[in-house]
Write a structure and sequence with these properties.
Length: about 120
């Protein structure tokens, strides 16, 4: 199983980025999906997750109204659109899969598969 994240880069505050994560080796539609991030010196945190079990989406308070999680089952690809980026969004972003995901983003140790991460840097 491989998750290949891309789309990170250096942007200015207020700009938009769209992260992609191509999944191979499993059928994306069978899993809950999630995006996590880890800033320097901080723990990895769940940014946004989607449950295929109940159709619910979860967003961290800091990104509500700015980030949108989505997926394309035909392309086996998941996305995170990030609008109005701020310097505090600077982090390495990771895509993740969790079978049976419900009720928000899973704990780090409960994730089934991780992508390698893509760096997002937002300058002020």
């Amino acid at each position: 199983v491989q998750l290949q994240a891309s789309g990170g880069g250096l942007v200015q505050a207020g700009e938009t980025l769209r992260l992609s994560c191509v999944v191979s080796g499993v059928t994306l539609d069978y899993y809950g999906i999630g995006w996590f991030r880890q800033a320097p010196g901080k723990e990895r945190e769940g940014v946004s997750c989607y449950s295929r079990t109940d159709g619910g989406s979860y967003y961290a308070e800091s990104v509500k109204g700015r980030f949108t999680i989505s997926k394309d089952n035909f392309k086996n690809t998941m996305y995170l659109e990030m609008k109005n980026l701020a310097p505090e969004d600077t982090a390495v972003y990771y895509c993740a899969l969790k079978y049976g995901l419900v009720g928000g983003c899973p704990r780090y140790q409960d994730v089934d598969y991780w992508g390698k991460g893509t760096l997002v840097t937002v300058s002020s």
